[in-house]
Amino acid sequence: MKKxxxxxxxxxxxxxxxxxxxxxxxxxxxxxxxxxxxxLTLRYQPICNLASGKVESFExxxxxxxxxxxxxxxxxxxxxxxxxxLIVPLGRWAIDAALATFAGWDRRGDASHAIRVGxxxxxxxxxxxxxxxxxxxxxxxxxxxxxxxxxxxxESALIAEPARMARMLTALKSFGLTIAMDDFGTGFSNLASLxxxxxxxxxxxxxxxxxxxxxxxxxxxxxxxLSLSQALNMSTVAEGIEMHEVAQTLAGLGCTAGQGYAFxxxxxxxxxxxxxxxRNR
Length: 281
Ligand code: C2E
Ligand code: MG
Ligand code: MG
Ligand code: MG
What we know:
Layout: H1 5-37, E1 40-49, E2 55-65, E3 71-72, H2 74-84, H3 87-108, E4 116-120, H4 123-128, H5 131-142, E5 149-154, H6 156-160, H7 162-173, E6 178-184, H8 191-196, E7 201-204, H9 206-209, H10 216-231, E8 235-238, H11 244-253, E9 257-258, H12 269-279
Parallel strand pairs: 2-4, 4-5, 5-6, 6-7, 7-8, 8-9
Antiparallel strand pairs: 1-2, 1-9, 2-3
Helix pairs in contact: 1-2, 3-5
The site of one magnesium ion has 4 residues, from loops.
Organism: Sphingomonas hominis
Domain EAL: 24-280
Protein name: Bifunctional diguanylate cyclase/phosphodiesterase
């Protein structure tokens, strides 16, 4: 019997769904192995003062090149890590590795002593792992003080269990950590919870910065975020600054710090250290 057009379509759809499920599983398996083997690396992107150009901190960003030489997109393997629970070991590794790099820089001289490192923390990791224990352990292992570590959280992390998040952030703050709200403006933060939680930094999402110069709406949003953060006694970092004109405009609006290709791409540890030495000389 001839198959109908519709059933052929349904079959093709099922085949594709199965293929993509297999691909996901293969990626999960490879990622698990990469984490176990220590094949992930971190790059460090400088966050610079917009007035002086000096480095204030770095953001650590995970990179994964698999055994076939394929470089996976962070947004993709982080999603797979979140869906599979691998974000817990990956997230622990990122904090340990970033602090180890900074401890190494500290031993080379005093250039890095006042510089913080920011590590991204997934909402799933916040739910599943005990972050205060993870941080306490990582600080002890590296010998670094909590003032040197910044955690970048997203708005979605705070929505699910606000009371538990408040307790966790307070416990983290007791180590001297800095808490940053990443991609700010893209989620829907409850402004009251923003004010109640111990958040130090708002990071203005790249989508408002890209193409900002010719766009009154984007400039209006950036202004609104800047005045919100001032009112709440927070500082602001603009993400995705690709042009110096944008950095100048942001400085004029009262934004103090930013990151983006106009300053530097995410760099490997050695290049990041050299960038710091040159910039902050
Ligand atoms: P994010 O935390 O918002 O990081 C900023 C992203 O913007 C990075 O993408 C960075 O490379 C990119 N970027 C920086 N400057 C510019 C610029 O001037 N122009 C443009 N177009 N892009 C710029 P990346 O490294 O691909 O990471 C993507 C996302 O993956 C991160 O967004 C973060 O949410 C997640 N991620 C990366 N590493 C980790 C990690 O170790 N743990 C967790 N939980 N998430 C991570
Ligand atoms: Mg980030
Ligand atoms: Mg961001
Ligand atoms: Mg982002």
